[in-house]
Amino acid sequence: MKRPVLVLTAASLLLALILGQINHHLGAWQLHAWCGGLFVAFAGLRLGYGAGAAVSFIAGLLLDAGAPVPFGTQGFLFLAAHAFVFTIRARAPREETVVGVVVALITNLGLFLAMGFLRIDPAVAPAGFWTRGFADLLVSQLLLALLAPWFFAVQQRMLELGGANTRDFPRRLT
């Protein structure tokens, strides 16, 4: 269990760095991309429950470090999202990339809305907040759809190079 957690945590760090650079360039248009569903989808679909939960929680803590929310918020949201993805994975062909992208998009939508409700400031006009939120969500979903196949391949290759086999993990929690 330790090796897949370490390997996928390194992959999550790589994704966080790439998203930071993308957000730096999107800042010129006052946009922000948030791809939290991408951190959770692969681990939820392909790893065992314990290893996937550890990867998701650590990725959430990694993103919490630079977010204006109480520390642990994204970690626990990612943990809840992992439990949801792990629950539905028995009903889907989890090795298919298209299924992974769709699961990542749905998970990202749920996490984005949850973070939006947690971060809303009563002093901000709700119409302006949600208009900006919708623009950010649209950019985030488009970017996630573009990055997901590449990131899933990177994670799979990193697991292979690290000597971990995702076929060893059961479809259901036993």
**Portion in strands:** under 5%
Overall outline: globular
What is the helix/strand order?
A: HHHHHH
CATH topology: Arp2/3 complex 21 kDa subunit ARPC3
Count of discrete alpha- or pi-helical segments spanning 4 or more residues: 6
**Number of DSSP strands?**
0
Radius of gyration: 16 Å
CATH class (first level) name: Mainly Alpha
CATH architecture descriptor text: Orthogonal Bundle
Low-confidence stretches: none
Largest sheet descriptor? none
Structure, described:
This protein has helices spanning about 1-25, 35-45, 50-65, 75-90, 95-120, 125-160. It has about 170 residues and is mainly α. The chain has one domain: Arp2/3 complex 21 kDa subunit ARPC3 (Orthogonal Bundle). The radius of gyration is 16 Å and the shape is globular.
Keywords:
single chain; Arp2/3 complex 21 kDa subunit ARPC3; 6 helices; globular
Write a brief caption for the model.
The chain is built from six helices and no strands. It has 174 residues and is mainly α.
What does the secondary structure layout of this molecule look like, with pairings?
Elements (H helix, E strand, L loop, with lengths): L1 H25 L9 H11 L2 H16 L8 H16 L8 H23 L6 H36 L13
Helix pairs in contact: 1-3, 1-6, 2-3, 2-4, 2-5, 3-4, 4-5, 5-6
